Q: What sequence folds into this?
């Protein structure tokens, strides 16, 4: 492969780096060539796994923990693997960056000023931002001429109205950046694009899409544009998640402070010890909880279903109605049990799930007579990043 015909996409988190290589066709169509993951960063057993487009394993091996102690080091490992397997570098690298702050409404080509700006948003995404930026910095040091593009999870939500963008706090705080940014925007953007193609009858419709993965949120979209989201200032707000609580009385944070917990203790607690994991005392993996007979696991599932159902339907107020409901991401795409559990809270609205369609994962999972159509759409954040990257470095 030569450098003019591939785009590399990197999605770096606290414990893993996922990377994908896309080929760029003559008509600018993007086709996946390989996908890899270095997981277990900072643990005693980091592993690198890479598969080609057919799912055949290209590499599967343990990495010396000293070489993947943090995301920076892990990116060096990924870079070395890529340069050993590709001839030349890709035409550009696209990165998922969670927070674009109030000013960045669209993907941007990265330069020093952009990196500096993005670093100021660390505290708005403590779990993500530094890890998202680490590979950008490593690549900039090693290959300063390789174009890099940052794609933001917040950007899709910059179409929100002034009301949707606010908390009920003094205006001065809003001006300082205390805003409802919203997240999972790359996933919602893909879902909106996919709906155009696979369910064109929903064009222009009022859609509630729920991204139910490790992080969980829902988004109200009209005509493919975000008008509201359950997530706000940070990725803590809204619906319950794997290890984050979602909605929480801020008085609880004050109460924890009074008990002597420091800022870092509380931050760790809110990002790592709450949600499904905190409620169940078992873990954050939906599969494990669904398989468990433990009463606390049932409780966690009931809580999750109720609050997700409530949050999704509440978004109807932003649009004065809901034409269709979409489930996506790990839980949304793969758990018929949780989808059914959530939809039980909507029976009073005439929304009905067809058990067989639900077991087959749709795409439509509601009955013919359901008042609102319910669908499963598989998300693909990486493809959206690759598209944006191509559009920025090689405009049509
Ligand atoms: P992320 O990419 O944010 O890490 P994912 O979108 O992969 O997260 O979602 C992870 C969640 O999806 C986990 O809670 C996992 O248990 C759940 N999940 C994945 N597959 C299934 C399945 N077959 N049944 C139920 N839950 C699943």
A:
């Amino acid at each position: 492969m030569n450098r003019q015909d591939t785009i590399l996409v990197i999605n770096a988190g606290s414990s893993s780096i996922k990377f994908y290589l896309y080929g760029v066709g003559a008509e600018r169509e993007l086709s996946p060539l390989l996908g890899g993951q270095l997981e277990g960063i900072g643990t005693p057993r980091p592993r690198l796994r890479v598969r080609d487009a057919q799912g055949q394993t290209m590499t599967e091996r343990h990495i010396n923990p000293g070489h993947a102690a943090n995301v920076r080091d892990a990116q060096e490992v990924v870079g070395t693997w890529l340069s050993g397997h590709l001839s030349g570098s890709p035409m550009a690298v696209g990165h998922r960056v969670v927070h674009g702050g109030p000013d960045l409404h669209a993907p941007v080509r990265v330069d020093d000023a952009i990196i500096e700006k993005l670093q100021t948003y660390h505290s708005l995404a403590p779990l993500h931002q530094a890890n998202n930026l680490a590979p950008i910095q490593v690549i900039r040091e090693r290959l300063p001429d390789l174009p890099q593009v940052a794609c933001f999870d917040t950007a899709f939500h910059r179409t929100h109205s002034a009301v949707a963008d606010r908390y009920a706090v003094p205006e001065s705080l809003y001006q300082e950046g205390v805003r409802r940014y919203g997240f999972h925007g790359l996933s919602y953007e893909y879902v909106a694009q996919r709906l155009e193609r696979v369910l064109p009858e929903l064009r222009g419709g009022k859609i509630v899409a729920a991204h139910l993965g490790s992080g969980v949120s829902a988004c109200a979209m009209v005509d493919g544009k975000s008008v509201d989201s359950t997530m706000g200032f940070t990725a803590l707000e809204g619906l319950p998640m794997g290890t984050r609580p979602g909605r929480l009385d801020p008085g609880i944070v004050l109460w924890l402070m009074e008990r002597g917990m420091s800022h870092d203790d509380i931050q760790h607690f809110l990002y790592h010890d709450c949600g499904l994991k905190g409620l169940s005392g078992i873990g954050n993996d939906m599969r494990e909880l669904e398989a468990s007979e433990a009463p606390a696991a049932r409780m966690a599932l009931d809580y999750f279903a109720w609050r997700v159902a409530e949050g999704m339907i509440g978004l109807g107020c932003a649009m004065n109605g809901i034409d269709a409901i979409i489930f996506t991401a790990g839980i949304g795409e793969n758990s018929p049990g949780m989808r059914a559990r959530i939809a039980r809270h909507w029976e009073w609205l005439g929304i009905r799930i067809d058990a067989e369609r639900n077991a087959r994962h749709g795409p439509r999972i509601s009955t013919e007579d359901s008042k609102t159509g319910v669908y499963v759409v598989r998300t693909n954040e990486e493809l959206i990043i690759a598209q944006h990257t191509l559009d920025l470095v090689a405009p049509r």
The chain has a mean pLDDT of 95. The chain has two domains: 6-152, 202-381. The domain at 202-381 is CATH 3.30.420.40 (Nucleotidyltransferase; domain 5). Residues 285 and 389 are 32 Å apart (CA to CA).
